Amino acid sequence: MEAKAIPLLTPYTIGRFHLSHRVVHAPLTRSRCYNNLPGEHVALYYSQRASEGGLLISESTGVSETAQGYPSTPGIWTKDQVEAWKPVVEGVHQKGGVFFCQIWHVGRASTYDYQPNGQAPISCTDKQITPEVLDDGTVEEFSAPRRLREDEIHQIVNDFRLAARNCIEAGFDRVEIHCAFGYLIEQFMKDSVNDRTDKYGGSMENRCRFALEVIQAAIDEAGADRVGVRLSPNSNYLDCWDSDPDALGLYMIHAMNKLGVLYCSMVEPEAVKVDGKVQIPYKLLHFRKAFSGTFIVGGGYNREEGNRAVSEGYIDLVAYGKWFLANPDLPKRFGLNALLNKYDRSTFYSPDPVAGTAYTPQVLLLNFGKTLVVPF
């Protein structure tokens, strides 16, 4: 199959940007930004995955000191952090790539150790996340949160506003607001967590108020054509689920349409295997039909399913995570239908700056179509 016939490699225009293909680098937490600062290895990672007219979305980047909950994740609330991001962004731009920054606040998904002065994590509630036993037998525990007072919420909205401003100052092309997967904004949105009785709790309109205030603040700072949003109405991560996820997702999408949000990003709630092959059941179709902007979806996609989803108009752009980790030149490999390097889950969150991603473009190009063995 020639590259021009591959749906994933057809051009697409998002806002003011003309993409040469539809293979998006998904936002991936790496836990390798020591002291919350991206270093040279981070710049190398993103530049290796950049391509002419290709879209990359950064790892989740904290908006304040209280936003932290995981080791060595980056921030963008200080001048030093903005300066540290500049060479990372420049490396992507030198390769002709388009770079968006995803900003977040983890809320109650944190511990005292990550919070300033050892204080309690903040949330819409004081309910603690249930401890979870991980695959390796260890137990993940989060500290009991402190319920934000209504008069404090404006400051958190302002943290997102300033973070959006800093993203643009650092050179990022656009900003993505992380409203998904059980973190602070979604804690407000979903009724399994939000037990407030003020104007930020109760009805769906009230529960979504904080999310929409954050999105509006980012738009006021950067412009509607510079703001995308990630949603996960069907997810139940971190004890965060909703009794009516379809209604919640559609409420947010209709509100985002009115605000002129550039794109909506989601993750497939389910991927199945039919005759041994991955198949996406298109369970997000009603959201896709409702949203008026660009629709980006990831989760479980391979080359074949990505091509099918684009060709059938189910989505505009396909986000790839683990395959991009192990294959920095993923769009080119898709074009050649070349073998893909296997990813190693044990390296996904390793503190080692190069574990799982120690490749050079020269080595990759010399090994197209062959099984490439690289130490993780």
TrEMBL record:
InterPro entries: Aldolase_TIM (IPR013785), OxRdtase_FMN_N (IPR001155), Oye-like (IPR045247). SUPFAM superfamilies: FMN-linked oxidoreductases (SSF51395). One of its GO terms (molecular function) is oxidoreductase activity. Keywords: Fatty acid biosynthesis, Fatty acid metabolism, Flavoprotein, FMN, Lipid biosynthesis, Lipid metabolism, NADP, Oxidoreductase, Oxylipin biosynthesis. Residues 8-333 form the NADH:flavin oxidoreductase/NADH oxidase N-terminal domain. It comes from the Eukaryota. Its cofactor is FMN. The keyword Ribonucleoprotein does not apply. GO terms for biological process: jasmonic acid biosynthetic process; oxylipin biosynthetic process. Belongs to the NADH:flavin oxidoreductase/NADH oxidase family. This is NADH:flavin oxidoreductase/NADH oxidase N-terminal domain-containing protein. It comes from Miscanthus lutarioriparius.
